[in-house]
Amino acid sequence: MPSCFTCPVLLSGTAVLILVVFLVAAGCIATPQAPSLSVTPAVVLSGDPVTITITGIAPGERVRVEAVQEVRNATLRSYAVFVADGQGRVLPDVHAPVDGTYGGVDPQGLFWSLAPGPGEHPDVFSRTTAPSFITISARTESGVNLSRVLERRLMGDGVTRVPVNEAGVRGTLFLPNGSDPHPALIYLGGSEGGVNEGIAAIFASKGYVTLALAYFGVPGLPQELVGIPVENVGDAVRFLNHHPRVKEDHIAIYGASKGAELALLSATRYPEIRAVIANSPASVVFQGISMDWSAGPRSSWSENGSDLPYVPFIWYGDDDPILVSMGEAAQNGTPWGTLAMYERALGDEAAVSNATIPVERINGPVLLLSAGKDTVWPSSRMSGDIMARLAEYRHPFPDMRLDYPGSGHMIRTPWQSTELNRIFLPGGMIEDLGGIPPENAKAAADSWPKVQEFLRVALGS
């Protein structure tokens, strides 16, 4: 690079102009940079990282960065205030905010801290595969106002969505791009019922033929989680093994909450299932969930037309402290978790012994995700019990347990709100899923790449 002009001389106006151009080109004079906000990539698959960069700001100036996302029944918002560095930049990947909805250096902070406003009741369970849009804006004290829109997709390019209602299988099949055979994954949601398509679409975008399987809560299936046949999963296994886009005998199953209970249970029955992921799992078969208390308790699951042994809930009359606290919470509109109900049930040692899931029969590795602040049921305790049983029976596969002490029920994919940890039910009941939002976010960020690597190794994909 040419050395900068340092000698004082008298120059004509034209010469001065030429000299200035020369010095700018040589890098001796810095030209002001226009303020700029970039969000890259502008279109991203849900769970994948995003980088926000702001440049051209006066060094030391405060910049307020906001995120806004419209969801069903609510508008989610977050913000962070930064001080531009000596080069006039704001880089959330390396800079900590001085104020905001999160603290510390956290690239995904603006996303996990997105929260609804007072009185808003967002739907925790998305029933759509449509993309979502997040507006990122930046404002300065001097009047700079910038914005960009991030499009977050559940379905990658070329993924095909196919409704399924055949051969005893109801749900939605997602096919990866192309025509070659791929490993397959069965996804089972929890006690919300129906078909949970979002995460299934993401896995298809990662290269898996993914079946979001319904097992109750849709026409033609039971409307409550009582006596659900495990054969539903067997039908799904056969359906996938005969599908031309599926590599035969390359099938895994992923279950969340009650779906994790069913995933573990069904994998003990169907050796074609070569890997299991159980998110917030149960170690036993529990009593089913029904609003018709007059019918008496039944198992969640059945086989060959008969209910499987189960651990029942235990009640001590109308003045039972658990029932009283539940009623008070519904009346006051305060969040309430079912944790105490399940912990009490696990105190029935005879029932637990009779209803423990024989996980040692699973024909492949098991990955468990569990949470220490789960207020639905003690997933951390039960995942520990599952691992202990696998070790006791010398399960000949590389099983793994990822336990997150600060997280709550349902560990999701990263880069999305972890403030949506309550379910608003009819009658004023608010079910608390537990967890501390920043810890929920850490659990999501840590577990998601490990889930993908587990599947890659287990299915040879």
Overview of the molecule:
The protein is an alpha/beta fold and 461 residues long. The chain has two domains: 36-153, Immunoglobulin-like, CATH 2.60.40.2240; 160-459, Alpha/Beta hydrolase fold, catalytic domain (Rossmann fold), CATH 3.40.50. It is 24% helix and 27% strand. It is built from ten helices and 22 strands. It has helices spanning 13-25, 109-112, 198-205, 231-241, 258-267, 321-332, 339-345, 349-355, 379-392, 437-459, and strands spanning 36-40, 43-45, 51-55, 62-71, 74-83, 99-100, 132-140, 145-153, 160-166, 169-175, 182-188, 209-213, 228-229, 246-256, 273-279, 301-303, 306-307, 335-336, 366-371, 400-404, 422-424, 430-432. The strands form five sheets. The chain has an eight-stranded mixed sheet with strand order 9-10-12-11-14-15-19-20, sandwiched between helices. The chain is globular and about 75 Å long. The two termini are 50 Å apart. The relative contact order is 0.10. The model is unreliable at 1-11 and 15-25 (pLDDT under 50).
Residues in helices, as a percent range: 10-25%
Mean pLDDT: 92
Subunit organisation of the chains: single chain
How far apart are the first and last residues' alpha carbons, in Å? 50 Å
How many separate domains?
Answer: 2
Low-confidence stretches: 1-11, 15-25
The CATH architecture of the largest domain would be: 3-Layer(aba) Sandwich
Report the C-alpha radius of gyration, rounded: 27 Å
Q: What's the count of strands? A: 22
